[in-house]
Specification:
There is one protein chain. The chain has 381 residues and is an alpha+beta fold. Helices cover 20% and strands 30% of the residues. The protein contains eight helices and 20 strands. The protein has helices at residues 5-9, 53-63, 108-117, 198-209, 266-278, 342-345, 351-362, 369-378, and strands at residues 42-50, 66-70, 74-78, 87-91, 96-103, 121-123, 130-136, 142-148, 187-195, 212-218, 229-233, 241-242, 246-250, 255-262, 282-290, 296-301, 307-312, 316-317, 324-327, 334-336. It has a ten-stranded mixed sheet with strand order 19-10-11-13-9-14-17-16-15-20, with helices on one face. An eight-stranded mixed sheet has the order 2-3-4-1-5-8-7-6, covered by helices on one side. A two-stranded antiparallel sheet has the order 12-18. A hairpin with an 8-residue loop joins strand 3 and strand 4.
C-alpha cells in the first residue's frame, strides 16, 4: 500500500498541533499583561495545613522530599537543589491547601507590590529568613510573594542512569540496576488550581505577578467564549523556564488540584513508584508523557488525599514563545500512557462535588449550564 504525503496529512495523531501550530485567533486573549506590577521569578513553596505532622513526614520521605526544618507546629520540606523549601505543612484542625508562595526576582519587587496593593512587607517565617508580601487572588487563595534571605544548600543528587541508544553505546560490561528507593525530589515544579472565576484569576496573575501563558485550552464548540484552562510560566526574558509554574482551569470548585515535583529521569519515576506502591499508597494516574509541557508524569495520593506528581523532562520556554491553543479533553492530556483515571479527572460524583456544582451554578462566576455540560463532556472524551 502506498502512503503518499497527501494521505499522511489526513492522519491525526496526538503529536499534531501540539503547540503554536494552532495559535490565537484575532481578538483572543493575548496571554500576557502589557504592564505587570512585577515579574515573579519562580514558585517558591506551597502551604498546607494537616492535623498529623508525623504521618505527613512519613509520606514526604517516602515520596522523596528531604526535611529542611521540623518543629511542633511546622514541617518544612525541600528538594536536593539549592534554593527555598518546596512545601510547608502547618499543624491544623483539618487537612487543607492554603496557597502558593512565589519568589520575587529582586527585593525591590516586594516594595513595588506593596505600594500597588496597599499591602505591607513583613518578615517571613521561613528557614534562613526573608521577607514577604501577602495578597489574595480573585479565587480567594492567599498568595505570598517572598524574598528569601538565605538559600538552602544543595544535597546529593540521584544520578541519572547511563543509557545505550541504538549504535551509541555509552555503557558496556556493566548492568543496569536502578535501586528501588524513593524518587529523590529535586525541586517544586508547578501547582494546578481549580476556580469558577477563571478569567478574573488568570488576568490577576498576569497583571500582578507578570506571568505569561504557554498554552490555552478551550471547550469544544465554545472557543468564542474564551479559554477554560491556562498553563502559565514565569517571564524571565531570554532565560528559558518551565512550560508552566501555575496552571488553572474553570470548574465548580475553588481549590487545589495537584502539585508537581521534578525528579532525575524515567527510572527514578518508575522505581520510586514501585517503592510507593509497596508501601500501600494509591497511584492516581501514570506513568505517561503529557502533551502541554511534554513532561513524563506519575500521580499519587498522599494519606490526606492530596494529589502529587513526580515529573521529569519538561519543556522550557523563553518569553518569545506565544500561547498555543487546543481543545480541552481527557484524551488530549497525554501523548502516551494509560487512559486518564476518574480519580485524576475528578469525575466521581461525590456529595461534596455535587454541592460545589449547585453552589457554582447559583453564584456570580463564569460557570453556567452550557459550560458545565461541555466540561463534563471534555472530561469523558
Amino acid at each position: 500500500m502506498s502512503l503518499t504525503p497527501v494521505a499522511r496529512s489526513h492522519v491525526t495523531t496526538a503529536h499534531q498541533d501540539l503547540h503554536s501550530e494552532q495559535g490565537a485567533l484575532r481578538g483572543e486573549h493575548p496571554g500576557r499583561s502589557r504592564n505587570p506590577v512585577i515579574k515573579v521569578a519562580d514558585l517558591a513553596w506551597l502551604e498546607f495545613e494537616k492535623p498529623d505532622l508525623d504521618r505527613a513526614e512519613v509520606f514526604a520521605r517516602d515520596f522523596g522530599f528531604g526535611v529542611a526544618a521540623r518543629t511542633q507546629g511546622e514541617l518544612w520540606l525541600r528538594g536536593t537543589f539549592a534554593g527555598s523549601p518546596c512545601m510547608v505543612i502547618r499543624r491544623g484542625h483539618t487537612s487543607r491547601f492554603i496557597g502558593p508562595a512565589f519568589r520575587a526576582a529582586e527585593r525591590a519587587d516586594l516594595d513595588r507590590l506593596a505600594r500597588a496593593t496597599g499591602s505591607a512587607v513583613r518578615d517571613a517565617d521561613v528557614p534562613g529568613g526573608g521577607q514577604v508580601v501577602d495578597l489574595l487572588d480573585p479565587s480567594g487563595f492567599p498568595v505570598r510573594v517572598v524574598w528569601c534571605g538565605e538559600e538552602l544548600p544543595a544535597l546529593p543528587e540521584q544520578r541519572p542512569l547511563t543509557l545505550n541508544f541504538g549504535i551509541e553505546h555509552r555503557r558496556t560490561n556493566v548492568t543496569q540496576r536502578p535501586p528501588r528507593e524513593p524518587s529523590r525530589i529535586q525541586r517544586l515544579g508547578h501547582v494546578v488550581l481549580e476556580t469558577p472565576v477563571f478569567v478574573r484569576a488568570l488576568n490577576w496573575y498576569l497583571d500582578m505577578l507578570g506571568m505569561i501563558v504557554s498554552d490555552f485550552l478551550f471547550l469544544d464548540g465554545q472557543r468564542e467564549r474564551g479559554p477554560t484552562m491556562a498553563f502559565l510560566r514565569c517571564d524571565r526574558g531570554s532565560v528559558a523556564v518551565d512550560h508552566h509554574t501555575l496552571a488553572m482551569h474553570l470548574g465548580p470548585g475553588t481549590g487545589y488540584v495537584h502539585s508537581a515535583y521534578q525528579v532525575t529521569d524515567l527510572d527514578a519515576i518508575a522505581a520510586g513508584g514501585e517503592y510507593l506502591n509497596e508501601r500501600g499508597y494509591k497511584r492516581s494516574w501514570g506513568i505517561g508523557r503529557h502533551i502541554q509541557g511534554s513532561q513524563l508524569f506519575d500521580y499519587w495520593r498522599d494519606p490526606d488525599r492530596f494529589m502529587l506528581e513526580h515529573f521529569a523532562d519538561g519543556d522550557l520556554f523563553s518569553c518569545d514563545v506565544e500561547p498555543g491553543w487546543a481543545p480541552m479533553s481527557a484524551g488530549g492530556l497525554a501523548q502516551w500512557g494509560p487512559p486518564a483515571t476518574r480519580d485524576f479527572l475528578g469525575t466521581d460524583p461525590s456529595p461534596a462535588r455535587l454541592r460545589e456544582v449547585v453552589q457554582a451554578l447559583r453564584g456570580d462566576n463564569e460557570l453556567d449550564p452550557a459550560r458545565l455540560l461541555a466540561l463534563l463532556k471534555a472530561m469523558t472524551s
